[in-house]
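The freezer alarm interrupted the setup, so I double-checked each line after restarting. Inputs confirmed:
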Amino acid sequence: MDGRLTKDLPNFRPNKAPVKKTVKEIIYHIVGIILSLIFLFPIIYMLATSTKSESAYAMGVGTLNMFLPDFANLGTAFENYKSVLLNYDIWKYALNSFIYAAIVIVLNILINGLAGYVMAKLRFPGKRLLSFLIIFLIVVPVETSIIPLYSIVKIMLGLKQEMSVIGVILPAAISIFNIFLFMQFFQGIPKDYEEAARIDGANTMGVFLKVIMPLSKPIIATVAVFCFIGVWNDYLWPSMILPSANDGSWPLLPIQTALISIKSIEGITTGEIMASLVITSIPIFVIYVAAQKYIVKGFGTAGLKM
Amino acid sequence: MLKTSLIILVLFVLAFGGFVAYDLATARKRREVYRVKSTATAYLMLLPAVALAFLFILLPILYSLGYAFTDYYLLRPNDINFIQLQNFKDFFAELSTKGTLYNAIKNTLTFVVGVVPLQIGLALLLALFVNRQGIGSKIFKVCFFAPVVISLSVTAFLWEQILAPGPNGLLNSIIGMFGMAPHDWLRDPKTAMPCIIVLSAWQGCGYQMLIFLSGLSNIRKDLYEAAALDGANWWRKFWLVTWVGLRSTFVYILITVFIGACRILTQPMLMTGYMDHTVTLSYYMYNKGYTERWVGYSSAVALLMTIFIGGITLIQRRIFREDK
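Predicted 3D structure, all chains:
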Protein backbone atom coordinates (compact mmCIF):
# COMPACT_ATOMS: atom_id res chain seq x y z
CA MET A 1 0.00 0.00 0.00
CA ASP A 2 2.59 2.47 1.18
CA GLY A 3 4.89 1.65 -1.68
CA ARG A 4 2.25 2.36 -4.29
CA LEU A 5 1.34 5.66 -2.69
CA THR A 6 4.89 6.93 -2.74
CA LYS A 7 5.30 5.91 -6.37
CA ASP A 8 2.29 7.98 -7.38
CA LEU A 9 3.58 11.07 -5.64
CA PRO A 10 5.29 13.67 -7.79
CA ASN A 11 9.07 13.89 -7.54
CA PHE A 12 9.89 16.23 -4.69
CA ARG A 13 13.28 17.10 -6.07
CA PRO A 14 12.78 17.70 -9.78
CA ASN A 15 16.27 19.21 -10.15
CA LYS A 16 17.79 15.74 -9.66
CA ALA A 17 18.47 14.60 -13.19
CA PRO A 18 17.46 11.03 -14.16
CA VAL A 19 20.97 10.47 -15.55
CA LYS A 20 22.31 10.68 -12.04
CA LYS A 21 19.86 7.98 -11.03
CA THR A 22 21.03 5.64 -13.78
CA VAL A 23 24.64 6.12 -12.73
CA LYS A 24 23.61 5.33 -9.16
CA GLU A 25 21.87 2.16 -10.33
CA ILE A 26 24.95 1.01 -12.25
CA ILE A 27 27.21 1.65 -9.26
CA TYR A 28 24.78 -0.22 -7.02
CA HIS A 29 24.84 -3.28 -9.26
CA ILE A 30 28.62 -3.24 -9.68
CA VAL A 31 29.07 -3.12 -5.91
CA GLY A 32 26.50 -5.89 -5.55
CA ILE A 33 28.26 -8.12 -8.05
CA ILE A 34 31.62 -7.60 -6.32
CA LEU A 35 30.08 -8.39 -2.92
CA SER A 36 28.34 -11.47 -4.32
CA LEU A 37 31.62 -12.73 -5.78
CA ILE A 38 33.34 -12.22 -2.43
CA PHE A 39 30.58 -14.25 -0.78
CA LEU A 40 30.47 -16.95 -3.40
CA PHE A 41 34.19 -17.44 -4.08
CA PRO A 42 34.55 -20.49 -1.78
CA ILE A 43 31.53 -22.12 -3.43
CA ILE A 44 32.76 -21.29 -6.94
CA TYR A 45 36.17 -22.68 -5.97
CA MET A 46 34.52 -25.85 -4.65
CA LEU A 47 32.50 -26.36 -7.84
CA ALA A 48 35.42 -25.59 -10.14
CA THR A 49 37.87 -27.83 -8.31
CA SER A 50 35.42 -30.72 -8.18
CA THR A 51 35.71 -31.06 -11.96
CA LYS A 52 39.50 -31.20 -12.06
CA SER A 53 42.06 -33.95 -11.90
CA GLU A 54 44.97 -33.49 -9.52
CA SER A 55 47.32 -32.37 -12.30
CA ALA A 56 44.81 -29.93 -13.75
CA TYR A 57 44.31 -28.50 -10.27
CA ALA A 58 48.05 -28.10 -9.71
CA MET A 59 48.39 -26.38 -13.09
CA GLY A 60 45.72 -23.83 -12.24
CA VAL A 61 47.28 -22.82 -8.92
CA GLY A 62 48.01 -19.13 -8.66
CA THR A 63 45.90 -18.18 -11.68
CA LEU A 64 42.29 -17.26 -12.24
CA ASN A 65 41.77 -20.84 -13.46
CA MET A 66 41.29 -21.87 -9.83
CA PHE A 67 37.77 -20.50 -10.11
CA LEU A 68 37.05 -21.89 -13.56
CA PRO A 69 36.30 -25.46 -14.59
CA ASP A 70 38.91 -27.33 -16.60
CA PHE A 71 37.81 -26.28 -20.08
CA ALA A 72 40.46 -28.40 -21.77
CA ASN A 73 39.01 -31.64 -20.39
CA LEU A 74 35.30 -30.97 -20.16
CA GLY A 75 34.59 -34.56 -21.17
CA THR A 76 36.06 -35.83 -17.89
CA ALA A 77 34.48 -33.14 -15.72
CA PHE A 78 32.40 -35.67 -13.80
CA GLU A 79 35.19 -38.21 -13.27
CA ASN A 80 35.61 -37.16 -9.62
CA TYR A 81 31.90 -37.52 -8.97
CA LYS A 82 31.89 -40.96 -10.53
CA SER A 83 34.84 -42.06 -8.46
CA VAL A 84 33.50 -40.81 -5.09
CA LEU A 85 30.10 -42.30 -5.78
CA LEU A 86 31.38 -45.69 -6.90
CA ASN A 87 34.73 -46.22 -5.16
CA TYR A 88 34.07 -44.49 -1.84
CA ASP A 89 30.43 -45.53 -1.41
CA ILE A 90 29.25 -42.01 -0.76
CA TRP A 91 25.82 -42.93 -2.12
CA LYS A 92 25.37 -45.40 0.76
CA TYR A 93 25.95 -42.65 3.32
CA ALA A 94 23.65 -40.32 1.40
CA LEU A 95 20.96 -42.99 1.36
CA ASN A 96 21.40 -43.43 5.13
CA SER A 97 20.87 -39.72 5.63
CA PHE A 98 17.74 -39.79 3.48
CA ILE A 99 16.34 -42.74 5.44
CA TYR A 100 17.09 -41.16 8.83
CA ALA A 101 15.57 -37.89 7.67
CA ALA A 102 12.42 -39.58 6.36
CA ILE A 103 11.82 -41.49 9.60
CA VAL A 104 12.53 -38.43 11.74
CA ILE A 105 10.18 -36.27 9.67
CA VAL A 106 7.27 -38.72 9.99
CA LEU A 107 7.79 -39.31 13.73
CA ASN A 108 8.41 -35.65 14.45
CA ILE A 109 5.23 -34.49 12.73
CA LEU A 110 3.05 -37.21 14.29
CA ILE A 111 4.39 -36.97 17.85
CA ASN A 112 4.77 -33.20 18.10
CA GLY A 113 1.67 -32.55 16.01
CA LEU A 114 -0.43 -34.66 18.38
CA ALA A 115 1.03 -32.93 21.40
CA GLY A 116 0.49 -29.51 19.83
CA TYR A 117 -3.11 -30.42 19.00
CA VAL A 118 -3.84 -31.58 22.56
CA MET A 119 -2.26 -28.44 23.99
CA ALA A 120 -4.19 -26.18 21.61
CA LYS A 121 -7.62 -27.76 21.57
CA LEU A 122 -8.34 -30.13 24.46
CA ARG A 123 -9.13 -29.41 28.08
CA PHE A 124 -7.55 -31.56 30.73
CA PRO A 125 -6.19 -31.10 34.24
CA GLY A 126 -2.42 -30.50 34.33
CA LYS A 127 -2.43 -28.51 31.11
CA ARG A 128 -1.12 -25.37 32.79
CA LEU A 129 1.92 -27.25 34.10
CA LEU A 130 2.69 -28.61 30.63
CA SER A 131 2.30 -25.17 29.00
CA PHE A 132 4.72 -23.80 31.56
CA LEU A 133 7.20 -26.63 30.88
CA ILE A 134 7.03 -25.98 27.13
CA ILE A 135 7.78 -22.27 27.51
CA PHE A 136 10.46 -23.00 30.11
CA LEU A 137 12.28 -25.51 27.91
CA ILE A 138 12.16 -23.14 24.92
CA VAL A 139 13.36 -20.04 26.76
CA VAL A 140 16.04 -21.47 29.06
CA PRO A 141 19.27 -21.98 27.16
CA VAL A 142 20.18 -25.59 27.69
CA GLU A 143 23.67 -25.38 26.37
CA THR A 144 25.30 -28.61 26.89
CA SER A 145 23.34 -31.64 27.88
CA ILE A 146 24.89 -33.62 25.03
CA ILE A 147 27.24 -35.61 27.30
CA PRO A 148 24.47 -36.70 29.74
CA LEU A 149 22.29 -37.49 26.72
CA TYR A 150 25.11 -39.65 25.41
CA SER A 151 25.41 -41.47 28.73
CA ILE A 152 21.63 -42.03 28.83
CA VAL A 153 21.48 -43.42 25.31
CA LYS A 154 24.67 -45.44 25.64
CA ILE A 155 24.42 -46.81 29.18
CA MET A 156 20.76 -46.75 30.14
CA LEU A 157 19.30 -47.92 26.86
CA GLY A 158 22.35 -50.14 26.38
CA LEU A 159 21.96 -50.11 22.61
CA LYS A 160 23.86 -52.69 20.63
CA GLN A 161 25.86 -51.52 17.63
CA GLU A 162 23.17 -52.39 15.09
CA MET A 163 20.49 -50.76 17.22
CA SER A 164 22.38 -47.49 17.65
CA VAL A 165 20.41 -45.95 14.77
CA ILE A 166 17.57 -45.73 17.29
CA GLY A 167 19.82 -43.42 19.28
CA VAL A 168 20.09 -41.18 16.23
CA ILE A 169 16.41 -41.16 15.35
CA LEU A 170 14.48 -41.02 18.64
CA PRO A 171 16.13 -37.93 20.21
CA ALA A 172 15.55 -36.11 16.91
CA ALA A 173 11.87 -37.12 16.88
CA ILE A 174 10.99 -34.85 19.79
CA SER A 175 11.23 -31.08 19.53
CA ILE A 176 9.65 -28.77 22.05
CA PHE A 177 9.90 -25.92 19.59
CA ASN A 178 7.93 -27.86 16.98
CA ILE A 179 5.22 -28.61 19.58
CA PHE A 180 5.08 -24.86 20.13
CA LEU A 181 4.85 -24.19 16.36
CA PHE A 182 2.03 -26.71 15.95
CA MET A 183 0.24 -25.34 19.00
CA GLN A 184 0.35 -21.80 17.61
CA PHE A 185 -0.95 -22.94 14.25
CA PHE A 186 -3.76 -25.14 15.60
CA GLN A 187 -5.03 -22.36 17.84
CA GLY A 188 -5.80 -20.42 14.67
CA ILE A 189 -8.06 -23.13 13.22
CA PRO A 190 -11.73 -22.30 13.93
CA LYS A 191 -13.68 -24.70 16.11
CA ASP A 192 -16.42 -25.13 13.49
CA TYR A 193 -14.37 -27.58 11.46
CA GLU A 194 -13.91 -29.93 14.40
CA GLU A 195 -17.49 -29.68 15.53
CA ALA A 196 -18.78 -30.57 12.07
CA ALA A 197 -16.60 -33.68 12.08
CA ARG A 198 -17.67 -34.59 15.58
CA ILE A 199 -21.33 -34.43 14.63
CA ASP A 200 -20.48 -36.91 11.90
CA GLY A 201 -19.25 -39.22 14.66
CA ALA A 202 -15.45 -38.85 14.43
CA ASN A 203 -13.42 -39.35 17.61
CA THR A 204 -10.58 -37.06 18.69
CA MET A 205 -7.91 -39.02 16.83
CA GLY A 206 -10.09 -39.05 13.74
CA VAL A 207 -10.58 -35.30 13.95
CA PHE A 208 -6.83 -34.82 14.25
CA LEU A 209 -5.95 -37.04 11.29
CA LYS A 210 -8.83 -36.21 8.95
CA VAL A 211 -9.65 -32.59 9.76
CA ILE A 212 -6.73 -30.87 11.46
CA MET A 213 -3.81 -32.39 9.55
CA PRO A 214 -5.18 -31.65 6.05
CA LEU A 215 -5.77 -28.04 7.13
CA SER A 216 -2.22 -27.75 8.42
CA LYS A 217 -0.17 -28.38 5.29
CA PRO A 218 1.85 -25.12 5.59
CA ILE A 219 3.05 -25.83 9.13
CA ILE A 220 3.68 -29.50 8.32
CA ALA A 221 5.80 -28.46 5.36
CA THR A 222 7.75 -25.98 7.49
CA VAL A 223 8.44 -28.58 10.19
CA ALA A 224 9.36 -31.21 7.59
CA VAL A 225 11.81 -28.88 5.85
CA PHE A 226 13.50 -27.91 9.10
CA CYS A 227 13.64 -31.56 10.20
CA PHE A 228 15.28 -32.53 6.93
CA ILE A 229 17.86 -29.76 7.14
CA GLY A 230 18.52 -30.60 10.79
CA VAL A 231 19.06 -34.32 10.19
CA TRP A 232 20.97 -33.90 6.95
CA ASN A 233 23.35 -31.32 8.38
CA ASP A 234 23.86 -32.91 11.79
CA TYR A 235 27.41 -33.95 12.37
CA LEU A 236 28.28 -34.18 16.05
CA TRP A 237 25.59 -36.43 17.53
CA PRO A 238 25.76 -39.21 14.89
CA SER A 239 29.56 -39.16 15.14
CA MET A 240 29.26 -39.88 18.87
CA ILE A 241 26.55 -42.49 18.79
CA LEU A 242 27.14 -44.50 15.62
CA PRO A 243 29.94 -47.03 15.07
CA SER A 244 32.19 -46.29 12.11
CA ALA A 245 32.03 -49.66 10.42
CA ASN A 246 35.03 -50.78 8.46
CA ASP A 247 34.29 -54.49 8.19
CA GLY A 248 32.67 -54.21 4.79
CA SER A 249 29.08 -54.36 6.00
CA TRP A 250 26.60 -51.62 5.17
CA PRO A 251 27.75 -48.47 7.03
CA LEU A 252 25.42 -46.74 9.46
CA LEU A 253 26.96 -43.27 9.31
CA PRO A 254 25.03 -40.41 7.72
CA ILE A 255 26.76 -38.37 5.05
CA GLN A 256 28.13 -35.48 7.12
CA THR A 257 29.80 -37.81 9.56
CA ALA A 258 31.14 -39.98 6.77
CA LEU A 259 32.87 -36.99 5.15
CA ILE A 260 35.64 -37.07 7.72
CA SER A 261 36.53 -40.67 6.91
CA ILE A 262 36.23 -40.05 3.17
CA LYS A 263 38.55 -37.07 3.50
CA SER A 264 41.21 -39.14 5.23
CA ILE A 265 41.21 -41.97 2.66
CA GLU A 266 44.73 -42.39 1.39
CA GLY A 267 45.37 -41.08 -2.10
CA ILE A 268 42.14 -39.12 -2.39
CA THR A 269 42.58 -36.05 -4.59
CA THR A 270 41.51 -32.48 -3.87
CA GLY A 271 39.02 -32.76 -6.73
CA GLU A 272 37.45 -35.85 -5.23
CA ILE A 273 37.12 -34.21 -1.79
CA MET A 274 35.44 -31.23 -3.42
CA ALA A 275 33.12 -33.50 -5.40
CA SER A 276 32.00 -35.23 -2.20
CA LEU A 277 31.41 -31.83 -0.56
CA VAL A 278 29.28 -30.79 -3.54
CA ILE A 279 27.29 -34.03 -3.40
CA THR A 280 26.71 -33.47 0.32
CA SER A 281 25.42 -29.95 -0.31
CA ILE A 282 23.14 -30.58 -3.31
CA PRO A 283 20.06 -31.91 -1.46
CA ILE A 284 20.08 -28.95 0.91
CA PHE A 285 20.35 -26.48 -1.98
CA VAL A 286 17.44 -28.23 -3.71
CA ILE A 287 15.35 -28.11 -0.53
CA TYR A 288 16.07 -24.42 -0.02
CA VAL A 289 15.11 -23.54 -3.57
CA ALA A 290 12.00 -25.75 -3.62
CA ALA A 291 10.71 -24.90 -0.15
CA GLN A 292 11.73 -21.23 0.06
CA LYS A 293 8.20 -20.19 0.99
CA TYR A 294 8.03 -22.47 4.04
CA ILE A 295 11.54 -21.63 5.16
CA VAL A 296 10.81 -17.91 5.19
CA LYS A 297 7.63 -18.67 7.14
CA GLY A 298 9.68 -20.69 9.62
CA PHE A 299 12.11 -17.78 10.05
CA GLY A 300 9.17 -15.50 10.70
CA THR A 301 7.92 -17.77 13.47
CA ALA A 302 11.43 -18.25 14.82
CA GLY A 303 11.23 -14.62 15.86
CA LEU A 304 8.54 -15.65 18.30
CA LYS A 305 11.11 -17.69 20.15
CA MET A 306 12.01 -14.74 22.31
CA MET B 1 21.43 -45.16 36.58
CA LEU B 2 18.24 -46.97 35.67
CA LYS B 3 17.21 -46.82 39.33
CA THR B 4 17.83 -43.08 39.56
CA SER B 5 15.90 -42.53 36.36
CA LEU B 6 12.96 -44.50 37.73
CA ILE B 7 13.03 -42.45 40.93
CA ILE B 8 13.02 -39.25 38.87
CA LEU B 9 10.16 -40.64 36.79
CA VAL B 10 8.15 -41.40 39.94
CA LEU B 11 8.85 -37.91 41.29
CA PHE B 12 7.82 -36.41 37.95
CA VAL B 13 4.57 -38.40 37.91
CA LEU B 14 3.89 -37.43 41.55
CA ALA B 15 4.49 -33.74 40.80
CA PHE B 16 2.27 -33.93 37.75
CA GLY B 17 -0.39 -35.74 39.80
CA GLY B 18 -0.21 -32.94 42.36
CA PHE B 19 -0.83 -30.35 39.68
CA VAL B 20 -3.69 -32.39 38.26
CA ALA B 21 -5.27 -32.59 41.72
CA TYR B 22 -4.80 -28.84 42.15
CA ASP B 23 -6.37 -28.14 38.75
CA LEU B 24 -9.30 -30.41 39.60
CA ALA B 25 -9.77 -28.78 43.01
CA THR B 26 -9.80 -25.26 41.57
CA ALA B 27 -11.77 -26.19 38.45
CA ARG B 28 -15.01 -24.73 39.67
CA LYS B 29 -13.41 -21.46 40.70
CA ARG B 30 -11.92 -21.06 37.20
CA ARG B 31 -15.25 -22.07 35.63
CA GLU B 32 -13.49 -24.95 33.89
CA VAL B 33 -15.14 -28.28 33.15
CA TYR B 34 -13.03 -31.40 32.69
CA ARG B 35 -14.57 -34.46 31.09
CA VAL B 36 -13.18 -37.90 31.86
CA LYS B 37 -13.18 -39.07 28.28
CA SER B 38 -11.53 -36.03 26.78
CA THR B 39 -8.94 -36.03 29.59
CA ALA B 40 -8.09 -39.68 28.94
CA THR B 41 -7.75 -39.02 25.19
CA ALA B 42 -5.55 -36.01 25.87
CA TYR B 43 -3.18 -38.00 28.12
CA LEU B 44 -3.04 -40.85 25.63
CA MET B 45 -2.21 -38.51 22.74
CA LEU B 46 0.40 -36.66 24.80
CA LEU B 47 2.09 -39.86 25.94
CA PRO B 48 4.62 -40.31 23.09
CA ALA B 49 5.75 -36.69 23.22
CA VAL B 50 5.96 -36.62 27.01
CA ALA B 51 7.85 -39.93 27.14
CA LEU B 52 10.44 -38.81 24.58
CA ALA B 53 10.76 -35.33 26.08
CA PHE B 54 11.25 -36.85 29.52
CA LEU B 55 13.90 -39.29 28.31
CA PHE B 56 15.86 -37.10 25.90
CA ILE B 57 15.33 -33.53 27.13
CA LEU B 58 14.35 -33.35 30.80
CA LEU B 59 16.46 -36.27 32.04
CA PRO B 60 19.70 -35.03 30.42
CA ILE B 61 19.17 -31.58 31.96
CA LEU B 62 18.58 -33.05 35.42
CA TYR B 63 21.49 -35.47 35.07
CA SER B 64 23.74 -32.70 33.86
CA LEU B 65 22.88 -30.81 37.04
CA GLY B 66 23.37 -33.88 39.22
CA TYR B 67 26.52 -35.30 37.62
CA ALA B 68 28.29 -31.99 38.16
CA PHE B 69 28.62 -32.93 41.83
CA THR B 70 29.80 -36.51 41.26
CA ASP B 71 32.90 -38.34 40.04
CA TYR B 72 30.97 -40.23 37.34
CA TYR B 73 33.30 -41.97 34.90
CA LEU B 74 31.41 -43.25 31.87
CA LEU B 75 32.69 -46.82 32.04
CA ARG B 76 31.83 -47.15 35.76
CA PRO B 77 28.11 -46.38 35.76
CA ASN B 78 27.58 -48.38 38.96
CA ASP B 79 30.20 -46.56 40.99
CA ILE B 80 29.15 -42.93 41.21
CA ASN B 81 30.14 -40.98 44.30
CA PHE B 82 28.89 -37.63 45.48
CA ILE B 83 31.97 -35.42 45.78
CA GLN B 84 30.33 -32.05 46.55
CA LEU B 85 32.15 -29.16 44.89
CA GLN B 86 35.33 -31.06 44.00
CA ASN B 87 34.70 -30.76 40.23
CA PHE B 88 34.40 -27.00 40.51
CA LYS B 89 37.53 -26.83 42.62
CA ASP B 90 39.33 -28.91 39.99
CA PHE B 91 38.03 -26.57 37.33
CA PHE B 92 39.46 -23.47 38.97
CA ALA B 93 42.66 -25.29 39.92
CA GLU B 94 43.18 -26.24 36.30
CA LEU B 95 42.28 -22.74 35.19
CA SER B 96 45.06 -21.32 37.35
CA THR B 97 47.67 -23.57 35.70
CA LYS B 98 47.06 -21.69 32.45
CA GLY B 99 46.86 -24.93 30.53
CA THR B 100 44.32 -26.15 27.99
CA LEU B 101 41.32 -24.88 29.96
CA TYR B 102 42.77 -21.37 30.18
CA ASN B 103 43.34 -21.41 26.43
CA ALA B 104 39.86 -22.77 25.83
CA ILE B 105 38.28 -19.87 27.68
CA LYS B 106 40.60 -17.37 26.03
CA ASN B 107 39.84 -18.73 22.54
CA THR B 108 36.10 -18.82 23.18
CA LEU B 109 36.15 -15.20 24.35
CA THR B 110 38.30 -14.21 21.36
CA PHE B 111 35.81 -15.90 19.07
CA VAL B 112 32.79 -14.27 20.70
CA VAL B 113 34.34 -10.81 20.75
CA GLY B 114 35.39 -11.20 17.12
CA VAL B 115 32.43 -12.89 15.54
CA VAL B 116 29.47 -11.16 17.23
CA PRO B 117 30.18 -7.62 15.94
CA LEU B 118 31.53 -8.88 12.60
CA GLN B 119 28.59 -11.14 11.83
CA ILE B 120 25.87 -8.75 13.04
CA GLY B 121 27.53 -5.75 11.35
CA LEU B 122 27.87 -7.61 8.06
CA ALA B 123 24.29 -8.87 8.31
CA LEU B 124 22.96 -5.35 8.91
CA LEU B 125 24.99 -3.84 6.06
CA LEU B 126 23.89 -6.57 3.65
CA ALA B 127 20.26 -6.20 4.74
CA LEU B 128 20.38 -2.45 4.13
CA PHE B 129 22.08 -3.11 0.79
CA VAL B 130 19.47 -5.53 -0.57
CA ASN B 131 16.44 -3.82 1.01
CA ARG B 132 15.03 -2.34 -2.21
CA GLN B 133 12.98 -3.31 -5.24
CA GLY B 134 14.43 -4.88 -8.35
CA ILE B 135 15.72 -8.15 -9.70
CA GLY B 136 19.38 -7.30 -8.95
CA SER B 137 18.89 -7.02 -5.22
CA LYS B 138 16.91 -10.29 -5.23
CA ILE B 139 19.81 -12.13 -6.85
CA PHE B 140 22.31 -10.54 -4.45
CA LYS B 141 20.14 -11.66 -1.53
CA VAL B 142 20.31 -15.28 -2.72
CA CYS B 143 24.09 -15.01 -3.14
CA PHE B 144 24.58 -13.66 0.39
CA PHE B 145 22.33 -16.35 1.80
CA ALA B 146 23.96 -19.28 -0.04
CA PRO B 147 26.69 -19.98 2.58
CA VAL B 148 24.01 -20.47 5.28
CA VAL B 149 22.72 -23.47 3.40
CA ILE B 150 26.03 -25.33 3.57
CA SER B 151 26.49 -27.57 6.59
CA LEU B 152 29.11 -26.94 9.25
CA SER B 153 31.18 -29.96 8.27
CA VAL B 154 31.22 -29.08 4.57
CA THR B 155 32.18 -25.50 5.46
CA ALA B 156 34.97 -26.75 7.69
CA PHE B 157 36.42 -29.06 5.03
CA LEU B 158 36.01 -26.49 2.27
CA TRP B 159 37.85 -23.83 4.25
CA GLU B 160 40.46 -26.35 5.28
CA GLN B 161 41.27 -26.67 1.58
CA ILE B 162 41.16 -22.91 1.06
CA LEU B 163 43.52 -22.36 4.00
CA ALA B 164 45.68 -25.40 3.16
CA PRO B 165 49.30 -24.82 4.26
CA GLY B 166 51.08 -25.76 1.02
CA PRO B 167 51.63 -23.33 -1.87
CA ASN B 168 48.64 -25.01 -3.59
CA GLY B 169 46.12 -23.80 -1.02
CA LEU B 170 43.76 -21.19 -2.44
CA LEU B 171 44.64 -18.39 -0.04
CA ASN B 172 48.36 -19.15 -0.23
CA SER B 173 48.29 -19.15 -4.02
CA ILE B 174 46.49 -15.80 -3.98
CA ILE B 175 49.01 -14.18 -1.67
CA GLY B 176 51.66 -15.96 -3.75
CA MET B 177 50.62 -13.79 -6.70
CA PHE B 178 51.76 -10.82 -4.65
CA GLY B 179 55.03 -12.53 -3.88
CA MET B 180 54.25 -13.51 -0.29
CA ALA B 181 55.43 -16.80 1.16
CA PRO B 182 52.85 -19.51 1.90
CA HIS B 183 51.54 -19.49 5.43
CA ASP B 184 50.17 -22.27 7.64
CA TRP B 185 46.98 -20.42 8.56
CA LEU B 186 45.41 -22.95 10.89
CA ARG B 187 48.58 -24.02 12.72
CA ASP B 188 49.79 -20.50 13.44
CA PRO B 189 48.26 -19.41 16.79
CA LYS B 190 48.13 -15.82 15.51
CA THR B 191 45.97 -16.55 12.46
CA ALA B 192 43.97 -19.66 13.39
CA MET B 193 41.22 -18.02 15.46
CA PRO B 194 40.82 -15.02 13.10
CA CYS B 195 40.38 -17.46 10.20
CA ILE B 196 37.70 -19.35 12.10
CA ILE B 197 36.01 -16.05 12.99
CA VAL B 198 35.94 -14.92 9.37
CA LEU B 199 34.60 -18.19 8.01
CA SER B 200 31.94 -18.38 10.73
CA ALA B 201 30.77 -14.85 9.98
CA TRP B 202 30.83 -15.66 6.26
CA GLN B 203 28.66 -18.67 6.84
CA GLY B 204 26.26 -17.22 9.37
CA CYS B 205 25.54 -13.63 8.42
CA GLY B 206 23.08 -14.43 5.60
CA TYR B 207 20.67 -15.84 8.15
CA GLN B 208 20.73 -12.73 10.30
CA MET B 209 20.45 -10.65 7.13
CA LEU B 210 17.05 -12.26 6.47
CA ILE B 211 15.89 -11.53 10.00
CA PHE B 212 17.04 -7.90 9.69
CA LEU B 213 15.18 -7.69 6.37
CA SER B 214 11.93 -8.83 7.96
CA GLY B 215 12.55 -6.22 10.67
CA LEU B 216 13.13 -3.56 8.00
CA SER B 217 9.90 -4.48 6.22
CA ASN B 218 7.98 -3.70 9.41
CA ILE B 219 9.17 -0.09 9.52
CA ARG B 220 6.52 2.29 8.25
CA LYS B 221 7.53 4.01 5.02
CA ASP B 222 5.86 7.29 5.91
CA LEU B 223 8.38 7.75 8.71
CA TYR B 224 11.13 8.03 6.07
CA GLU B 225 9.07 10.48 4.08
CA ALA B 226 8.43 12.57 7.16
CA ALA B 227 12.15 12.54 7.92
CA ALA B 228 12.96 13.49 4.32
CA LEU B 229 10.53 16.41 4.47
CA ASP B 230 12.27 17.54 7.63
CA GLY B 231 15.49 17.57 5.64
CA ALA B 232 17.18 14.64 7.37
CA ASN B 233 20.23 13.26 5.61
CA TRP B 234 20.91 9.55 5.09
CA TRP B 235 22.68 9.11 8.42
CA ARG B 236 19.98 10.83 10.45
CA LYS B 237 17.29 8.82 8.68
CA PHE B 238 19.18 5.64 9.52
CA TRP B 239 19.76 6.62 13.11
CA LEU B 240 16.30 8.01 13.92
CA VAL B 241 14.05 5.76 11.85
CA THR B 242 15.81 2.54 10.82
CA TRP B 243 17.78 1.92 13.97
CA VAL B 244 14.86 2.67 16.27
CA GLY B 245 12.64 0.40 14.21
CA LEU B 246 15.20 -2.40 14.24
CA ARG B 247 15.87 -2.29 17.96
CA SER B 248 13.92 -5.37 19.02
CA THR B 249 15.18 -7.32 15.99
CA PHE B 250 18.71 -6.31 16.94
CA VAL B 251 18.33 -7.51 20.52
CA TYR B 252 16.98 -10.85 19.30
CA ILE B 253 19.88 -11.24 16.86
CA LEU B 254 22.46 -10.13 19.41
CA ILE B 255 21.32 -12.72 21.93
CA THR B 256 21.01 -15.60 19.47
CA VAL B 257 24.37 -14.89 17.80
CA PHE B 258 26.02 -14.52 21.19
CA ILE B 259 24.66 -17.84 22.45
CA GLY B 260 25.62 -19.55 19.19
CA ALA B 261 29.13 -18.10 19.35
CA CYS B 262 29.66 -19.29 22.92
CA ARG B 263 28.87 -22.84 21.84
CA ILE B 264 31.38 -22.99 18.98
CA LEU B 265 32.68 -26.53 18.69
CA THR B 266 32.46 -28.10 15.22
CA GLN B 267 34.76 -25.75 13.31
CA PRO B 268 37.88 -26.13 15.51
CA MET B 269 37.10 -29.82 15.98
CA LEU B 270 37.10 -30.56 12.26
CA MET B 271 39.67 -28.03 11.11
CA THR B 272 42.49 -28.31 13.63
CA GLY B 273 41.65 -30.98 16.18
CA TYR B 274 42.30 -30.62 19.90
CA MET B 275 45.02 -27.97 19.78
CA ASP B 276 45.80 -25.41 22.45
CA HIS B 277 45.52 -22.44 20.11
CA THR B 278 42.03 -23.30 18.81
CA VAL B 279 40.39 -25.36 21.58
CA THR B 280 37.15 -23.78 22.80
CA LEU B 281 35.19 -24.25 26.00
CA SER B 282 32.56 -26.45 24.33
CA TYR B 283 35.30 -28.50 22.76
CA TYR B 284 37.06 -28.86 26.12
CA MET B 285 33.80 -30.00 27.70
CA TYR B 286 33.16 -32.44 24.88
CA ASN B 287 36.67 -33.81 25.09
CA LYS B 288 36.51 -34.30 28.86
CA GLY B 289 33.10 -35.95 28.74
CA TYR B 290 33.25 -37.96 25.53
CA THR B 291 36.87 -38.67 24.71
CA GLU B 292 38.21 -38.90 28.26
CA ARG B 293 34.85 -40.12 29.62
CA TRP B 294 34.85 -37.95 32.78
CA VAL B 295 31.13 -37.22 32.60
CA GLY B 296 31.03 -35.75 36.11
CA TYR B 297 33.71 -33.13 35.50
CA SER B 298 32.36 -32.40 32.02
CA SER B 299 28.89 -31.78 33.46
CA ALA B 300 30.38 -29.31 35.94
CA VAL B 301 31.98 -27.42 33.03
CA ALA B 302 28.63 -27.50 31.21
CA LEU B 303 26.87 -26.12 34.27
CA LEU B 304 29.35 -23.25 34.58
CA MET B 305 28.93 -22.53 30.87
CA THR B 306 25.15 -22.45 31.12
CA ILE B 307 25.33 -20.10 34.09
CA PHE B 308 27.76 -17.83 32.25
CA ILE B 309 25.73 -17.72 29.03
CA GLY B 310 22.43 -17.33 30.87
CA GLY B 311 23.88 -14.52 32.99
CA ILE B 312 25.25 -12.56 30.03
CA THR B 313 21.97 -13.06 28.15
CA LEU B 314 20.05 -11.61 31.10
CA ILE B 315 22.41 -8.63 31.26
CA GLN B 316 22.03 -8.04 27.51
CA ARG B 317 18.26 -8.12 27.84
CA ARG B 318 18.34 -5.69 30.71
CA ILE B 319 20.63 -3.24 28.89
CA PHE B 320 18.55 -3.31 25.73
CA ARG B 321 15.17 -3.51 27.41
CA GLU B 322 12.74 -1.33 25.52
CA ASP B 323 12.01 1.88 27.30
CA LYS B 324 8.32 2.26 27.63
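Quick read of the result. The radius of gyration of chain A is 26 Å.
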